[in-house]
Amino acid sequence: MSTEGTTPDAPAALLADLAAFFRTEDRERRAALAAAVAGHPAYDRARLGAWLHRLDLWPALPRGRRDLAVPVGCGEVRSVLLRVPKGYTPERPWPFLYLLHPSGSNGPSFLGYLEQILGPKIDDFLVAAPSHYRQTGLDAPAPFTIDHLAIFQAVRRAAHVDVDRTFSIGYSTGGYAAWAVALFHADQVAASVAIGSVFTVPPGEDGLWKTVLPNFAQVPVMHVWGSRDSMPVIAMGSRNSMGTMAEVNQRFREWTKKMDLPIEDCRIAGRGHGGLAPPPGPLAKLLARRRVHYPKRVDHTFRHVHQGHCYWLEAHTWEGAHWGPQFPRIQRKPGETDARAMGRSIEELLGTLRGEVAGQRLTIDRRHVGDLTVWLGEGMVDWGAPVVVEVAGQKVFEAPLEPDLLVCLEEAARTYDFDRLRWAGVRVNARGAAEPVTGGTPFPPLLPPVAEKPAQGVRSLFQRPRRRPGR
């Protein structure tokens, strides 16, 4: 799209400087371009997101299917089918559906299921369908690839994505993965649809449900399951059955009624594992949602550091014990049930980030997190007034913070998220030392540099279905 010409809200010179910022990685050049934009008479911080969406950063893709090869770390590459809808133009952002296939299928063949349930409405969305993805649950074995985040980043650069209207949807094994996307990457999606699956975490009040379910506080999940689904669910770390999918889902349904979470239970009476589809009306309503940007409270539990991001908190390094390729050793204490012993043992190996914004004070608790960034966006605090950051009960930072265009643009170039703009930040290290984020603050790479080999004999949390769902 051309930036030639002048409009009252976006002069050509300003747009040209913004586009040039994204086309260079030279730090000095970027700083000069950010200063030029900030100094332009028409510069308006409130309009920056809209201006970024007008830049000529994406190719004019023809309608149809194209393949993306996406590195996901550990030396692995995922094949991702990108479906470009009729009428696609890079001149505006498009809602995005992340489609996750069941076992025995792949991205291209499962696309027909989505076309069937959405009908002509599918052309309202960009669709990305990876094949043979990994990381479908809490217990996903090594190698610990970064499938979902890496694919999101690749699609955002290949096509003009509306990041505020990004949704994951999956069936069977893909349903497990849809749960995992919402669980570990809640701040990247507006909602998730999990079909023909169970929530892949040890169940019950004395397991881990109470620990990890707060991750869903800001991201709705539509849970679609059949009342007669007889697919077995195998307990983590053993060969013992926890019951059928229908039985486990019924227990989950009853438990989540006790918590104020946006999980929409869609039990399909008389159905088994195949032939399930979300109800059209509720699905359309869900797919019209927009993502939450900066909630006042966040509570996030995760297994790997690349999953340690939640709205305005971002972990960069891991501290202490970690759940690696081997299954954790479970030692039951007197009076504990097996489920409680397992839940406690695993919980001790999970990372957590919890935070609350109260006026100008941001309080954070962390476990197994070293370096982290506390991000500030529009509406979180009063700019210019002192901001106080407390970590683990200790005040680590107190000073005024101003919106910094260079910081905002550097972060937008790193994430290609033009909707949740981050204008300032405080970097806190593992010892509690803190300093403001600047345009030169380094961030670790998304993909792990060293391959991790899967251990032999590690059991999965649940027995994954091996058949494709009925159509």
| Rg from Cα | 23 Å
Shape: globular
Main β sheet profile? 8 strands, mixed
At the fold tier of CATH, the topology name of the largest domain is: Rossmann fold
Q: Count of helices?
A: 11
Q: What class would the helix/strand composition place it in?
A: alpha/beta
Topology, number of strands? 20
What does this entry look like structurally?
This protein has 471 residues and is α/β, with parallel strands linked by helices. The protein folds into three domains: 42 residues, no CATH class; 223 residues, Rossmann fold; 140 residues, no CATH class. It is built from eleven helices and 20 strands. Strands 1-2-4-3-5-6-7-10 form an eight-stranded mixed β-sheet, sandwiched between helices. Strands 11-14-15-17-18 form a five-stranded mixed β-sheet, with no helix packed on it.
Keywords:
alpha/beta; Rossmann fold; 3 domains; eight-stranded mixed β-sheet; disordered C terminus
What topology emerges from the helices and strands here?
Elements: H1 12-22, H2 27-38, H3 48-53, E1 64-73, E2 76-84, E3 94-100, H4 107-118, E4 126-130, H5 147-158, E5 161-171, H6 173-184, E6 191-195, H7 209-212, E7 221-226, E8 232-234, E9 241-244, H8 245-256, E10 263-268, H9 280-286, E11 297-302, E12 309-310, E13 313-315, H10 338-347, E14 351-358, E15 361-367, E16 372-376, E17 386-391, E18 394-400, H11 405-415, E19 424-428, E20 434-436
Parallel strand pairs: 3-4, 3-5, 5-6, 6-7, 7-10, 15-17
Antiparallel strand pairs: 1-2, 2-4, 8-9, 11-14, 12-13, 13-16, 14-15, 16-19, 17-18, 19-20
Helix pairs in contact: 1-2, 2-11
